[in-house]
Write a structure and sequence with these properties.
Elements lengths: L6 E5 L3 H12 L3 E5 L3 H10 L15 E4 L10 E4 L6 H8 L8 E4 L12 H8 L4 E6 L4 H5 L4 E6 L3 H11 L4 E6 L2 H23 L4 H21 L4 H4 L2 H10 L6 H10 L4 H8 L4 H16 L4 H10 L5 H9 L8
Parallel strand pairs: 1-2, 1-4, 2-3, 4-5, 5-6, 7-8
Antiparallel strand pairs: 6-7
């Protein structure tokens, strides 16, 4: 692709997909935003607003909305903003309509639950003709939409492939750093969601800021251990898409994963917490995949395992806390 894409497609009209459409439009491109529901695309076209997912943010005329996958056949760059667990099904619909070799930037953060596959591998399987990339890092949709300064990581198979896409999406308030560590960037974005649930539980259960700070530190150690065992580079895990995103989602109620943990810590059931929040809490699905991968590789992930056990009703929160605090004493590293 050229440095400045002429047509950018965004697949998924949730809050994050809508914010990314704004990123592309502000970078000077014509954008086609695909919504699963025709009602959503009609509302955006008429009101210039995604009231359900990103209210009070006006969408410029450079963004058009559709519910027809074939409309994205003209695009020379697409960003995939569907939930991680829905990406396979959605992209099956787009396979006949995407140009061969098109950069396809995955912006969901998760691991496919049923297969334990990372999303770039899922996309290669479904759409072998596209070129998977990953966009991840500390970023909330509302902040991006309001043009607050945001820095993220864009990973591709090579820096030469990532660079023109990063240049095409960059603006004074949105800065993509490039990487060729696809594995590391995916792991950082996926695993931090599970760990953010744990931090929400600690906060909701009233265990204090000291406990939450300790948990973030140990969560990062777990993220690093898991990532390096799977081939991630340590410098990726200490960067925006690893430590940066972990700190953000473990510290803010804007994070849906943190809010789920907060509700669980306050005594709500999983069903009640997810029903009241709306949208998709990726970490609830990713926890099972992380534990399954860790068990198969002999990787120690006590925090993720505790979250998974709580979500499945196998441990109460007091039981999980006691189990973590009573682990054998050892050197920190």
């Amino acid at each position: 692709m050229t440095t400045r894409a002429q047509q950018v497609g965004v697949i998924g009209a949730g809050a994050w997909g809508t914010a990314l459409a704004l990123v592309a439009a502000r970078a000077g491109h014509q954008v086609i935003l695909w919504a699963r529901e025709p009602e959503t695309s009609r509302e955006i076209s008429v009101t210039r607003e995604n009231k359900a997912r990103l209210p009070d943010i006006r969408l410029p005329e450079e963004i058009s909305a559709t519910s027809a996958p074939e409309d994205l056949s003209v695009c020379d760059l697409v960003m995939i903003a569907t939930p991680a667990q829905a990406m396979r099904e959605v992209m099956e619909r787009f396979r006949p309509h995407l140009q061969p070799g098109i950069p396809a930037v995955i912006t969901a953060k998760g691991i496919e639950q049923g297969t334990s596959q990372f999303l770039a591998d899922v996309l290669r399987e479904i759409c072998p003709a596209v070129d998977p990339m990953i966009l991840s890092g500390p970023s909330f949709a509302a902040d991006v939409a309001r043009q607050l300064p945001t820095a993220v990581t864009l990973a591709a198979r090579s820096l030469d492939q990532a660079r023109p896409v990063a240049e095409a999406l960059s603006s004074p308030t949105f800065r993509p750093y490039i990487s060729d560590d696809l594995v590391g960037v995916q792991i950082g974005g996926a695993v931090k969601n599970v760990l953010a649930i744990a931090c929400g539980i600690v906060t909701g259960h009233g265990l204090g800021e000291s406990a939450r700070a300790a948990l973030i530190a140990r969560a990062f150690a777990e993220l690093s251990r898991f990532g390096t065992a799977l081939g991630a580079r340590r410098e990726t895990l200490t960067g925006l898409s690893g430590l940066g995103d972990l700190v953000l989602t473990c510290s803010s109620s804007q994070s849906r994963n943190f809010r789920l943990g907060l509700a669980l810590g306050q005594g709500q059931s999983f069903e009640a917490a997810t029903a009241s929040d709306g949208g998709v809490t990726e970490g609830a699905y990713t926890a099972e995949a992380v534990v399954r991968i860790a068990d198969s590789r002999g990787i120690d992930v006590p925090v993720s395992a505790a979250v998974h056990a709580i979500l499945k009703g196998r441990l109460s929160i007091p039981q999980a806390i006691a189990a973590l605090m009573q682990r054998p004493l050892k050197a920190e590293d």
